[in-house]
Write a structure and sequence with these properties.
A: about 200 residues; alpha+beta; 8-stranded antiparallel β-sheet; two-stranded antiparallel sheet; 4 helices; 10 strands; B: alpha+beta; two-stranded antiparallel ribbon; about 20% helix; EC 3.4.21.- (chain B); IMP2 (chain B); Mitochondrial inner membrane protease subunit (chain B)
Chain lengths: ~200, ~180
């Protein structure tokens, strides 16, 4: 640990300094050391404090996110900057049609950004419109069905199945860049494909 | 009168200062480093809660160890339940991604664990709601690694990452530090 070790070292250095050098050097050394040490402690303290406040803000309130990839076009383009809020996730208020950020089921270190098409218990149409026989799947309890708005170019629940609710990190509700598209996000361009279809 | 008002204002300012320092630091510590939790249920007997409902074990949950989602076979981990996101469950890791497990009571006899997933089981087979019911779980649901039992004092111990030999995966892709075939 940084703190006790450095304090012990400081005291040892001061004892050696007092024995070997004269009083002028002693007082200079003492003030310099205490000044630098004090400043370091304060800096470390502030860093820890602000890091903790940042963690609490990003975890419980929300933050700004940059999205990459084509799977949510035209609603969210590549390199758009959006605002995400985490209160809906904590109060279990995610609705159908919300755009959410979730941890990728196959890679927990990366995030995916998709739209919620169905909640638990919903019947999802999983066959293509061109198929003659329609097939349905029910979303299991504790899971959601996610799809990107750009259906041709999106790896989503049609590929890896329903996603557990616990993987959802937050809900995207506002776009702040590019400025030409500033504002709340549009509804899905694909119409409503779930319950009752 | 002016003196007591000054005292109240100074006390209030000191309280706010302390509050905005202490609460975020404590919350971050409990979220990112470690916390404690009481174990309920019989799904991990005899390792946890051998006394049933009479005395629940309290375990130390270490978040820091799983910050990069690195777990070994045999670790006891807590994760968000895939069937109920409000609940956390505590189970043992049996298999990592790429392993083929022989299941107990699952609809398929052999299951290959997909990428980014793990297979978890409770030690008390038959009384455990685990991967044999809901299949492999995504690593993103991982919450913490249970390292020690803290209460009751006669059960103070470090939880070992051992895999019972009959639960070793049939075939494994990744090397592990503990007991791979």
């Amino acid at each position: 640990m940084f703190f006790p070790g450095s304090l012990a070292t400081t005291l040892k250095i001061e004892c050696i300094v007092e024995q070997t050098y004269g009083p002028w050097w002693q007082s200079l050394h003492r003030t310099m050391l205490r000044g630098i040490l004090g400043k370091t402690f304060r800096l470390v303290g502030y860093t820890i404090q602000y890091a903790c406040i940042a963690h609490c803000a990003f975890e419980y309130v929300g933050g700004v996110v940059m999205c990459s990839g084509p799977s949510m076009e035209p609603t969210i383009q590549n390199s758009d900057i959006v605002c995400a809020e985490n209160l809906s996730r904590h109060f279990y208020g995610i609705q159908r049609g919300d755009i959410v950020i979730a941890k990728s089921p196959s890679d927990p270190k990366s995030n995916i950004c998709k739209r919620v098409i169905g909640l638990e218990g919903d019947k999802i149409l999983t066959s293509r419109p061109s198929d003659f026989f329609k097939s349905h799947n029910y979303v299991p309890t504790g899971h959601v069905w996610l799809e990107g708005d750009n259906l041709q170019n999106s790896t989503d629940s049609r590929y890896y199945g329903p996603v557990p609710y616990g993987l959802i990190r937050g809900r995207i509700f506002f776009k702040i860049w590019p400025l030409s598209d500033f504002g709340f996000l549009r509804d899905s361009p694909n119409g409503h494909r779930s319950p009752g279809d | 009168m002016a003196q007591s008002q000054g005292w109240v204002t100074r006390y209030f300012k000191a309280f706010c200062k302390g509050f905005f320092v202490a609460v975020p630091v404590a919350v971050t510590f409990l979220d990112r480093v470690a916390c404690v939790a009481r174990v309920e249920g019989a799904s991990m007997q005899p390792s946890l809660n051998p006394g049933g409902s009479q005395s629940s074990d309290v375990v130390l949950l270490n978040h820091w160890k799983v910050r990069k989602f690195e777990v070994q076979r045999g670790d006891i981990v807590s994760l968000v339940s895939p069937k109920n996101p409000e609940q956390k469950i505590i189970k043992r890791v049996i298999a990592l991604e790429g392993d083929i497990v022989k299941t107990i009571g699952h609809k398929n006899r052999y299951v290959k664990v997909p990428r980014g997933h793990i297979w978890v089981e409770g030690d008390h087979h038959g009384h455990s709601f685990d991967s044999n019911s809901f299949g492999p779980v995504s690593l993103g649901l991982l919450h913490a690694h249970a390292t020690h039992i803290l209460w009751p004092p006669e059960r103070w111990q470090k939880l070992e990452s051992v895999l019972p030999p009959e639960r070793l995966p049939v075939q494994s892709e990744k090397e592990s530090l503990h007991g791979s075939p």
